[in-house]
Amino acid sequence: MACTHHCCSTENADNGRYRNILWIALFINALMFAVEIIMGIKAGSVSLLADSLDFFGDAANYGISLFVVGKTLHIRAKASWIKGYTMGGFGLWVLASTLYHFWYGNIPNHHDMGIVGVIALIANIIVAVLLFAFRNGDSNRRSVWLCSRNDAIGNIMVVAAAFAVQFTQSSWPDLLVAVTMAVLALQAAVQIIRHANTELSARPKISLVAQHEQHFDPD
What we know:
The chain is about 85% helix and about 0% strand. The chain has helices spanning about 5-45, 45-70, 75-105, 110-130, 140-170, 170-215. α2 runs antiparallel to α3, α3 (about 75-105) packs antiparallel against α6 (about 170-215) and α4 packs antiparallel against α5. It is found in: Membrane. It comes from Neisseria zalophi. This is Cation transporter.
């Protein structure tokens, strides 16, 4: 069935608003990546470094999402599939980095951790609020929402870890937060990949139904 003029106009307006929000999210995440990668190295914090790469990954994800806005469900599902495996790779990298810092790392600078963590939290809350209305869309939109949600949760934990590092004078809180962020990334990756695979596997069935209807079309 062809889309009515009102339906198409509504969809185009929705895609246009979503695209504008993605540009804002892309800028915020690219900026915060630069801030956190510098401060993470300066503070010696593995959780900040993990969060900086998370910002980088999200900026790349938003860029991909901008490319597939308005594309077919099959193309959007493929993009989600790629993003899911990217998030999974990020989670595994954080786990490996945490093990390295467990053996060779020093106590991070809790003051820098706290300040940067609060700034990153504010940035991610802004992005999460902007994307909240699109959280129940296709796998691609859901992946963008999950990235933003996990970032906000991760930033809260970074701030909490900064206080814990100051109180305990130990690197353990920083390491525990990094592991938790890795687990969140892996869980989100599994959800996104499963959703994308469902959409990709459904495509041939939809095509067969369309061909069947076209074959028996009395016109």
